[in-house]
Amino acid sequence: MFEHEKVSGLDIIRVNGNRMDASNSPEFLAQVDQLTSSGVSQLVVDFSGVSFMDSSALGATVSALKKIGSKGTLTLVGVSGLVDDLFKLTRMDKVFHMVPTLEDAGLARTA
Amino acid sequence: MKLLIVDDAPDVRLILSHWAKKKGYEYRVAKDGEEAWAMLMEEDFHIVISDWLMPKLSGPELCERIRKHEFSHYVYIVLLTGMSDTKDMITGLNSGADDYCNKPLNFEELDVRMGTAHRVVELETTLENKNEDLQQAYDALDHMHQGLGRDLENAALLQRALLPEGEKVSQIDYAWYYRPAIQVGGDTLQTAFLRDNLAVFYLVDVSGHGVSAAMMSISLHTLIDSVEQELVQLSAEEIPQRVVTTINQKIVELELNHYCTMIYGAIDLKNHRIYYIQAGHPNPVLMRAGNAEATELEGTGFPVGLIEDAAFETRSVDYKTGDSLLIYSDGFSDLMTDEFPDQNLAQVCTPCFGANAAEAISEFENTLLIDGVMAKQEDDVSMMVLNL
Question: Cβ B208–A58 below 8 Å, yes or no?
């Protein structure tokens, strides 16, 4: 469900599938945990294709942010539709660094 | 493994008896089918070696009887036959015999037949033991499941007991609808009179649903009520900020796996003004008396318990007597979005508002939250109407 790859030095977790909810959120957090404990501090999560997110998934995304901590960065890519609505309603768009595409994420990192 | 030997010829009975004794079997001997049947009724036999042609009851007839009867274990039957005709053989086997052995008796053949008999009988015993174990495990599980079911039902009663009982607070009448996804849920709500000219209300939705969300929502309910009691000096305007900030701090400190969204409001009953905080929660719907359509009180806000120093914004809205306020959890709005994709929520809700809150909730129940819609419920659904 969550695929990790490194693209031009950037660690990316891709969310495969269109639903992120209580059933797969723990898996997401486990992945993030694995990466942060192996030293990753710049992380990108690709949400393009995710059309639904529930409260557990939102909580997991915030937990991921906390795991990365103040020394690292977490960038969310491709948040749209109902997921974007949820982020706006809960003001998470003010909390997360969100960009439309992976290219933007790459550029943001080298800047 | 007790053996029953059945043959009308005395010499065959003798030969088989000697053989059985030599093999170390516990055995009995019958001289015809009827006597064999009588013995089967009295004692436990696992293997029957029987002749085919016998007076009173033939081998195949004995087989049929044995198969029709429900013994407590499998009875393995070998028919002794002088017949070489396959057709007769098939008839015999169809009567329920497991195997046959040719006459004149060949003891090597008999041994082979007994080998199979032993395997089958042992297999059957193993199966029976396993079945017994399974049945015991199942009974234990079923017992526990019923116990849990009762526990959940009691927990549900407890949770509902926290919800407000009355119908009126000062001149405001209110009513609510509460349907968790399972017996207990992560939603909770309240409308209460705090002190002179001050009322408070809230609807909280703890993230997720199920037992742990329910436990958190119950503890939040009591926490909020206790925080309110301490705020004697504060005005309606100051209360929401203090309550929500305190709750936020507590949840973050406890590092629980759940956060919540909520609408928390304080009503200045004298000046007809509501001060409220929208904490990451779906927007309240306001139906002003005399208006054709309801409107959403739009806004955004941080959820509670998710971010440590979250800043919560207090909003206000003035009301007139006869206005109605609807607050709800996203379980409700999600269902409505699915049912009415082309309408916004305020439009969908408008027809339900009526003379009083109880009527409005009835309308919601009877026209929108019908069985067909509720069958699709995935999240806790709760809502409250305040008729101001």
Answer: no
How would you write B234-258 as a 3-class SS string?
CCCCCHHHHHHHHHHHHHHHHCCCC
For residues B360 and B383, give the distance between their C-alpha atoms in angstroms, rounded to a whole number.
11
Is B303 part of the contact surface with chain A (CB cutoff 8 Å)? yes
pTM: 0.76
pLDDT for the residue A110:
55
What is the DSSP code string of chain A?
Answer: -EEEEEETTEEEEEE-SSEESTTTHHHHHHHHHHHHHTT--EEEEE-TT--EE-HHHHHHHHHHHHHH-TTSEEEEE---HHHHHHHHHTTHHHHSEEESSHHHHHHHHH-
Contact (CB, 8 A) for B282 and B328: yes
Q: Quick check: B305 contacting A, CB < 8 Å?
A: no
Contacts of B207 in chain A (CB under 8 A): 55-56, 58-59
- Residue B378's pLDDT is 87
Residue spans of chain B under pLDDT 70: 83-85
Q: Residue B42: what pLDDT?
A: 93
Q: Model ipTM?
A: 0.83
Cα of B341 vs its chain's centroid, Å: 31
Q: What stretches of chain B adopt beta strand conformation (E)?
A: 2-6, 26-30, 47-51, 76-81, 99-102, 168-169, 172-179, 187-195, 198-206, 260-268, 273-279, 285-287, 295-296, 314-318, 324-328, 381-387
Instruction: Decide if B307 and A22 are in contact by the 8 Å CB cutoff.
Output: no
Q: How far is B88 from B66, CA to CA, in rounded Å?
A: 19
Segment A38-74, tens digit of pLDDT = 988 899 999 998 999 988 899 999 999 988 988 889 9
Closest CA to B193 of B174, B221, B220: B174
Contact: A91, B282; criterion CB under 8 Å: no
pLDDT of the residue at A108: 59
Six token digits for residue B78: 């070998």
Q: Does the beta carbon of B306 lie under 8 angstroms from any beta carbon of chain A?
A: yes
Chain-centroid distance of CA B240 in Å reads 39
Task: Give the model confidence (pLDDT) of B203-246 as tens digits.
Answer: 999 998 789 899 999 999 999 999 998 888 899 999 999 999 99
Q: Quick check: A104 contacting B, CB < 8 Å?
A: no
